[in-house]
Amino acid sequence: MLDKVTDISDLQRIARRRVPRMFYDYADSGAWTESTYRDNSDAFGRIKLRQRVAVDIGDRSIATQMVGQEISMPVALAPVGMTGMQHADGEIAAARAAEKFGVPFTLSTMSICSIEAVAAATEKPFWFQLYVMRDRDYIEALIERARVAGCSALVLTLDLQILAQRHKDVKNGLSAPPKPTLINLIDLAFKPRWCLGMLGTANRTFGNIVGHAKGVSNMTSLSEWTHAQFDPTLNWDSIDWIRERWDGPLILKGINDVEDARIAAGKGADALIVSNHGGRQLDGAAASIDMLGPIVDAVGDQIEVHFDSGIRSGQDILKAVALGAKSTYIGRAFVYGLGAAGEAGVTKALELLRKELDLTMALCGETDIRNVGRHNLLPPGDFGQPI
Ligand code: FNR
């Protein structure tokens, strides 16, 4: 089945068939009107690459580094909540695929498999993403758990102090595990592979929370806890509090504004991620790829700049790197692979992106991803001069 898959949209189509509706919709949706969600991808289409010919492109490398770590291509797996609902043990499957590929996997606070379960099933260190909750004792313990598990970077998400709305999640009554309503049961009857996988695992709800956070023992208390716990008072000073408790590489996620980038660059972090959360938070925000250039211009000489939001191809990755991102993250691009075929599907997604990136770089006349820059792009509307 995977040998007929030629791009990420093929994986998306298979995932739509195999993953229960509420979890497929959870991934393939954005906040409110979804205008930013759509624009994240559309904006890539407006950026034009410079085609160069007759350059010796026989020997090429797309290997690079993120926060000092060697990686086989400028891609990491973004933190994605409830990955373990796209496929049984989804976080473990994705982490294993990333590990074999030589790219970082980032485990979400809102994962199904716990930090400890992923650590036990993998060999190399992975990264941990932190949501700051009101219960700081819980956060302190979570950071400690990440350290004990050997996590080699902490990704602190700043753009979800408060939750935007995705209409589909409300309509579908999103929960992990799904509630046994008639509509859900009918849907699950058409997803036998998914059900079988789930029957074979004990990882069916939020592994980092249940049994760890005070007062969370069942689904009702979990849902109440989650909604009450995202901390709307999170502010730039909170980063100092985190810094005191985590001395490894720290990455600030969710910067989509030049002024915020300037402040972030002064906080002693190792990298920032230009991101609008894949269009899942502020509907009407600029596409992140449109903000990348201005942010790199403002702070690129002070802090490593990473990028996510809207990447669906190797061409997109090349454009982000050309605009100054040291590396990128993929969210839905790997989630669709996971939903389509578990670990093999994530591996397929990474293979597709690697091939597209390598060939696109070559067609731009470049042989080393570390030399890709703005000279590989054409300025908007003026195709005479490189940027
Ligand atoms: C996310 N994202 C996210 N980010 C984060 O910091 N913690 C999280 O738990 C989640 N959860 C989550 C769930 C789902 C289903 C998606 C699609 C995304 C955001 C994610 O890390 C990343 O910023 C976006 O996915 C990037 O956009 P693309 O690549 O999906 O277009």
Explain how this protein is built:
This protein has helices at 8-18, 21-27, 35-46, 90-101, 115-121, 136-148, 167-172, 182-189, 192-199, 219-229, 236-245, 258-265, 288-299, 314-322, 332-363, and strands spanning 48-49, 64-66, 69-71, 75-77, 106-107, 127-130, 154-157, 250-255, 271-274, 304-307, 327-330, 377-378. With 387 residues, it is of the alpha/beta class. It has a single domain (2-364), classed as Aldolase class I (TIM Barrel), CATH 3.20.20. An 8-stranded parallel β-sheet has the order 4-11-10-9-8-7-6-5. A two-stranded antiparallel ribbon has the order 1-12. A two-stranded antiparallel sheet has the order 2-3. Strand 5 (106-107), helix 5 and strand 6 form a beta-alpha-beta unit.
Strand order of the largest sheet: 4-11-10-9-8-7-6-5
Distance between the first and last residues' Cα: 42 Å
> How many H/I helical runs?
15
Write out the distinct hetero groups bound to the structure. Answer: ligand FNR
Question: At CATH's second level, what is the architecture?
Answer: Alpha-Beta Barrel
Instruction: Please state the average pLDDT score.
Output: 96
The level of helicity is: 40-55%
Count of beta strands: 12
The residue ranges in which pLDDT falls below 50 over 5 or more consecutive positions are none
Q: What class, by secondary structure content?
A: alpha/beta
Order of H and E elements: HHHEEEEHEHEHEHHHHHEHEHEHEHE
Rg over alpha carbons: 20 Å
Please outline the major beta sheet. Answer: 8 strands, parallel
**General form:** globular
User: What is the beta-strand fraction?
Assistant: 5-15%
CATH superfamily: Aldolase class I
CATH top level label: Alpha Beta
In CATH, the topology is named TIM Barrel
The figure for the number of domains is 1
